[in-house]
Amino acid sequence: RSYSNPEAEGQLLNSFVQYFGDSLERKIKRMPLIEETVLLGDSLLTLPVVIIGNGPSGICLSYLLSGYRPYLSPDAIHPNPILHTKLEEARHLSIVDQDLEYLSEGLEGRSSNPVAVLFDTLLHPDADFGYDYPPVLHWKLEQHNYIPHVVLGKGPPGGAWHSMEGSMLTISFGDWMELPGLTFKEWAASKRRNIKSDRVMPEEIACYYKHYVKVMGLQKNFRDNVYITSVSRLCRGKDDEDRSQLNENISTQHLELEDEQKSLIKRNWEVRGYQRATDGSHVPFCLFAENVALATGTFDSPGRLQVEGEDFPFVLHSMSDFGAAISKGKLRGKADPVLIVGAGLTAADAVLCAYNNNIPVIHVFRRRVTDTSLIFKQLPKKLYPEYHKVYHMMCTQSHTMDSNLHSAYTSFPEHNVLSFKPEMKCVLQSASGLKKILKFSVALVLIGSHPNLFFLKDQGHSIGHHSNQPITCKGNPIEIDPYTYECTKEANLFALGPLVGDNFVRFLKGGALGIARCLAIRQKKKHELIEGGDGGGDGVP
Q1: How high is the pLDDT of residue 230?
Q2: Of 93, 403, 407, 446, most Cβ neighbours within 10 A?
Q3: Cα-based distances in Å from 64 to 5, 60, 134, 146, 472
């Protein structure tokens, strides 16, 4: 395949030269962008880390890999006395350089990942008890701890936050959405934004993340408009392996030594894709990486009912499509109601959006309204009045209360969608097996979303808790080591954020901490090996 724009190719090459510095310019000119017909040589550049995804997960990981280190603040006292005693024991060390398993032992929180709970309580002590304590950490930039990396994203830094519906408030407080080193309130004040509520609009969060990358000096690590097509293991012969010791991955060294007889060895990752140029053309590239971190989130593929008629154009699967239909006036004057399927917060947002635009709603969901696992049960009424308004309607305006549809809203608890018909009708079935046919103007299926890991072997099905099943945030997250966030089934592949079950921004930061510590340890071992080799006369020339 030929480059569609040679000038764009040159710009990309130059950007990597600037990124890594003049000392690596000779290697960079041979890499990282190659045509697919080029054979792999043994002097190609290998990056220590490639991060796929530039949302808050990828941004936070880049921040730590750039050398920023958290230390216990001089006058800080953590409200947890046991944790504070542990922190005092190694006050002179950054948290990245401490035993995360020891620090997180005994802590409890709303994440199943212990390091996520640890980092959250250091940044937001006792937040789940309603307290607004300041962080017990302060940050230092230590240039010698920088680990070269690149962050690849489809759009600007901030990821999916740039495409979320802008008319709804976030579920979390603005303070819980912020990243280390820059509070959301500081950013809002600098931009002269009047934040009237503790909860904010997604568009404000997206702007904050984009600004964060700039103010923290992380831009050189980020590449926008990049689409990944393949991430695979690179196999090389033994002779090539011996000639490439500088690129050797320390974490897999012992595995390679155990199996000297193999003629081919799985080693670094090959990352392929393309960058969309300003003229719309695609510039293909290929990178090699010792480690790959998956930070893609879960907004790639909307959940589907897998029923007959779901592909009709009047069956939508995103809030943005629904918002576009409203703004274009497509639902104005329609006599039939909108059919909304789902009982999560996005479905509730859709109900509110329709309600506020005087569009009647049929709301279908599988659970009972008394189900304790409904998200509304976990939200305080005073902080989330709009969602409790929806929940109140779900309970009191059910079709079981009245055989007729209500004028503005009617709920159908414990119902499943069996099919959609071309005449814009829907067949529902109740828990008792009773079927009902309803007419609607447009259907909106909002039952969650799933990550699209098509670029991995078997679409990543082999790295979940349940093998050979699609990766999902709740049912089948990627299986990781709880303290390093390395995939248990694939060495040197890391994952964080929603991919490992941490949906909330306040918890995904723990993944960045775990990965940064793991890579820092391996980087140190690698340097010690190289320096030891030079001293003994057997090092790499």
Answers
A1: 96
A2: 446
A3: 35, 7, 20, 8, 27
DSSP tally for the chain: helices H, then strands E = 15, 19
- Cα separation, 295 vs 500, in Å, equals 10
DSSP 135-181: PSEEEEE-GGG---EEEE-SSSTTGGGGGS-TTS--SSBHHHH-BTT
In this structure, whether the domain defined by 46-224+452-529 belongs to CATH 3.50.50 is answered with yes
The tokens for 287 are 């990178």
pLDDT range class, residue 384, cuts 50, 70, 90:
confident
Q: Which residues pair with 449 in a beta bridge?
A: 302
**Please, what sign has the CA dihedral across residues 116, 118, 119, 125?**
positive
Domain 303-448, CATH among 3.60.60.10, 1.25.60.10, 1.10.132.30, 3.50.50.60: 3.50.50.60
In sequence order, the 6+-apart residues with CB closer than 8 A to the CB of 288 are: 31, 32, 44, 45, 46, 47, 234, 247, 268, 269, 270, 271
- At 487, give phi and psi (nearest 5°): -60, 130
Stretch 507-536: mean pLDDT, rounded?
86
- Written as six digits, the tokens of 201 are 């609009």
Using a 10 angstrom Cβ sphere, with 0-12 exposed, 13-18 middle and 19 or more buried, the burial of residue 27 is: middle
276 alpha-carbon distance from chain centroid = 21
- What is the b/e burial string over 516-532, where b = at least 16 CB atoms within 10 angstroms of the residue's CB? bbbbbebbeebeebeee
477 in Cβ contact with 25 (< 8 Å): no
Distances (CA, A) of 517 to 25, 112, 359, 480: 29, 19, 52, 15
Residues facing 425 on adjacent strands? 421, 439
pLDDT band at 143 (very low <50, low <70, confident <90, very high): very high
Answer for the pair 468, 459: CB distance below 8 angstroms, yes or no. Answer: no
The pTM assigned to this predicted structure is: 0.77
> What are the φ and ψ backbone dihedral angles of 26, each rounded to 5 degrees?
-60, -45
Do 303-448 and 46-224+452-529 fall under one CATH topology?
yes
